[in-house]
Design goal:
- By secondary structure, this protein is an all-alpha fold.
- Helix content is about 55%, strand content about 0%.
- It starts with 19 loop residues before the first helix and ends with a helix.
C-alpha cells in the first residue's frame, strides 16, 4: 500500500495554540453520551447519538430560519434562497438519519426503553421552535416546557411572532399584491389557516415568473422545505411503528396515531393549492 507522506509543514505543536478539539469543544460533545441502562445495553449509545445529532441539525435549522425571517422583514428575499436551500439539505440529513435508527430492532429497544422514563421527542424544544417558525402554532404544546423558564419564555416569544410564511405574506402586501388584511394582521399565536383569497396572488406570481422572479423563487423554496418536512414526519412515523408498533409514547402520547395526524398538517397550503389553478 503506498504511504502518504506526512508533510513537514503540518502543525504538530499545540501546547499554546487552539487545536481542532478545543475549537469544537469535543471534550464536552464526546462525553455527553451517558447510557442509563445497567448493565449498559449496546444499542442505547446509538439511540442517544441519533437524537443528539438530530438536535444539532435542528439548532442549525433554527439559526437559518431566524435569519430568513429577518431578511424577509427587510424585504430582501434573495438571501433567503441560499438559506432555505441549506435548510432543505439539513432536512435531508435528518430524514436520512432515520435509516440508522431503523437498525434498532424492537427486541433490542425493549431492553432499555424503560430507562427513558417519561422522556420523549415531544419534549424537544428545538423541534417545537421549528414548528412555530414554520407556522404550526399550538399554545398547549408549550406547557410541556413550563419546568424550564428560559426555554418556555423563548417558545412563548416565538409563538406570538409572525412565522416565516406570515412574514412572506406581509412582504407581498407591502409590495402591492392583493393580500387580504386577515393575513397580515392577526393573532400570530394561532396556527395558520388556509385563505382562498391568496390563490389569485400566487397564481399571478407563478404565471409571470420573469416579472416576479424573487417572489416566484421564494415560493418554490418554501415548497422545498415543506416537502422535506413532510417526508421527515412520514419517516418518523414509519420508524416508530417499525420499532415499537402501536405502544404508547414514552411522553404519554398515543404514539403512532398521534404522529400520523401530523402528516395531515400543511404549512403553506396556498402554495400547494395554486398548482391546480396554474394554466387554467
Amino acid at each position: 500500500m503506498p504511504e502518504r507522506e506526512f508533510e513537514d509543514s503540518i502543525q504538530t505543536d499545540f501546547r499554546s495554540r487552539l487545536d481542532y478539539r478545543g475549537y469544537l469543544h469535543l471534550e464536552r460533545i464526546l462525553t455527553a453520551q451517558e447510557p442509563l441502562s445497567d448493565p449498559e445495553h449496546h444499542d442505547e449509545m446509538l439511540f442517544i447519538i441519533q437524537h443528539q445529532t438530530s438536535e444539532l441539525w435542528m439548532k442549525l435549522m433554527i439559526h437559518e430560519l431566524r435569519s430568513a425571517v429577518d431578511f424577509v422583514k427587510k424585504d430582501e428575499l434573495s438571501p433567503c434562497f441560499k438559506i432555505l436551500a441549506r435548510v432543505k439539505q439539513v432536512q435531508r440529513m435528518l430524514f436520512e438519519q432515520w435509516a440508522v435508527l431503523e437498525t434498532l430492532t424492537p427486541s433490542e429497544y425493549a431492553q432499555f426503553r424503560g430507562v427513558l422514563g417519561q422522556a420523549s421527542g415531544l419534549q424537544s424544544y428545538q423541534n417545537r421552535q421549528i414548528e412555530f417558525l414554520f407556522g404550526n402554532k399550538n399554545a398547549k404544546a408549550v406547557k410541556v416546557f413550563e419546568h424550564n423558564p428560559e426555554v418556555h419564555a423563548e417558545l412563548i416569544k416565538t409563538l406570538h411572532e409572525p412565522s416565516l410564511y406570515d412574514e412572506f405574506l406581509r412582504h407581498l402586501a407591502r409590495r402591492g399584491y392583493a393580500v387580504p388584511s386577515s393575513a397580515v394582521d392577526r393573532d400570530w399565536s394561532l396556527a395558520y389557516e388556509e385563505n382562498p383569497e391568496l390563490i389569485p396572488v400566487f397564481k399571478r406570481i407563478y404565471e409571470n415568473p420573469t416579472e416576479y422572479w424573487d417572489a416566484y423563487e421564494m415560493c418554490e423554496k418554501l415548497i422545498d422545505v415543506e416537502e422535506y418536512f413532510a417526508l421527515w414526519r412520514f419517516r418518523h412515523v414509519k420508524t416508530v411503528e417499525r420499532i415499537i408498533g402501536f405502544k404508547r409514547g414514552t411522553g404519554g402520547s398515543s404514539g403512532v396515531p398521534f404522529l400520523r395526524r401530523a402528516l395531515e398538517i400543511r404549512l403553506f397550503p396556498e402554495l400547494w393549492d395554486v398548482r391546480t389553478e396554474i394554466g387554467t
